[in-house]
Amino acid sequence: MKTIFSGIKPSGDLTLGNYIGAISNFVQLQNENKCLFCVVDLHAITVPQEKLELRKRTKDIAALYLACGIDPNKATIFIQSEVSAHNQLAWILECNTYVGELNRMTQYKDKVLKEGTSALTSGIYTYPVLMAADILLYDSSLVPVGEDQLQHVEIARDIAVRFNNKYGETFVIPEHYVPKIGARIMDLQNPTIKMSKSSSAKGCILLLDDPKIIRKKIMSAITDSESSIKYDIKNKPGISNLLSIFSIISNISIKDLESQFVNSNYGEFKKALADELVDFITSIQKRFVEIRNSQQLDDILDQGAITANNIGSRKIKKVYKKVGLLRK
Ligand code: AMP
Ligand code: TRP
């Protein structure tokens, strides 16, 4: 049995990309592994957040985890800021991470290119170290993420190896788990960029979007001037992206979808996808409404925090001892 850890930031509404790249895999993995799924609110405050909005989104994501099929009897669901060992370990790891390594992080470099450094917090800079702490704290061996997070899992590995060499065997070296299909769901209006909460509204489907809007977004997705429904990322990025979405949602392989729609035009294909997606997301939304304001949600998060705190505080003790921080 492997220990699996992953997290999602409550810095915006959850997208279909988050579901396909991350949550759908969490749901698969929970059956045969020891899983911890976290709402990483400390990561969200690396950029400005409105207090009430952050509080609301944090619970929204926890409720969406459950609505999407994460089972609290199989996995631990909790909020990062409720487990202080994450911050404690992050500091120790920061003292074992080099500035040069952080300078090489592409997400950070992209942000600097776009925004300059004057408004960037040091939290944004050390963000990957807090993420490494999240992962290493629980001796996680597998980290399911979308493609954009690969480099961050890689630096967590580097930090763990270095720490083990310096202080003796302490951390399990984690590996990433990236799905074969759906590791990078693209923007519906610009299939060369990642679908994200910060890209265009029309190009991004939110899990809590109104079904009518979801249908509209799919029907107006950018495709190409041909007419064949074939998976070919290079020449047909729009159709390939829609095929990936269709495949994950319906559990039908891309090959089978290609044969199923061999005589259809793009309009018919999009309509079939929109029907499937609306059905799928509507059932998530129904469960979300039931769970979001229930006492059950708070109970699950309270229990999750207890479990995570137990593991985390034991690990912190070990780490502090290795570094020479505890008197006894
Ligand atoms: P974030 O919303 O940035 O906290 O991302 C949470 C998880 O969703 C991470 O594992 C991301 O890699 C994944 N993710 C976000 N956007 C996409 C996307 N467009 N395609 C696939 N995975 C994604
Ligand atoms: N940085 C990740 C993202 O933006 C979120 C995250 C924080 C995470 N800690 C993690 C993902 C630990 C996996 C494991 O998507």
Please give the structural blueprint.
Blueprint: E1 3-8, H1 16-29, E2 34-39, H2 41-44, H3 51-67, E3 75-79, H4 85-94, H5 99-103, H6 106-115, H7 122-137, E4 142-144, H8 150-167, E5 175-177, H9 211-219, H10 237-250, H11 254-260, H12 266-292, H13 295-323
Parallel strand pairs: 1-2, 2-3, 4-5
Helix pairs in contact: 3-12, 4-7, 4-13, 7-8, 9-12, 10-12
Bound molecules: adenosine monophosphate and tryptophan (TRP).
Commentary on this structure:
This protein is mostly helical. It folds into two domains: about 5-175 and about 295-325, Rossmann fold, CATH 3.40.50; about 210-290, Tyrosyl-Transfer RNA Synthetase. Helix content is about 55%, strand content about 5%. The strands form two sheets. Strands 1-2-3 form a three-stranded parallel beta sheet. Strands 4-5 form a two-stranded parallel ribbon. The radius of gyration is 21 Å and the shape is globular. The two termini are about 35 Å apart. The mean pLDDT is about 95. It binds adenosine monophosphate and tryptophan. Adenosine monophosphate binds next to helix 1.
CATH class placement of the largest domain: Alpha Beta
Strand residue percentage: 5-15%
What's the CATH superfamily of the largest domain, by name?
Answer: HUPs
Ligand inventory reads: adenosine monophosphate, tryptophan
Please tell me how large the radius of gyration is.
21 Å
Determine the fraction of residues in helical runs and give it as a percent range: 40-55%
Mean residue pLDDT: 96
CATH architecture of the largest domain: 3-Layer(aba) Sandwich
Count of domain modules: 2
Major β-sheet profile: 3 strands, parallel
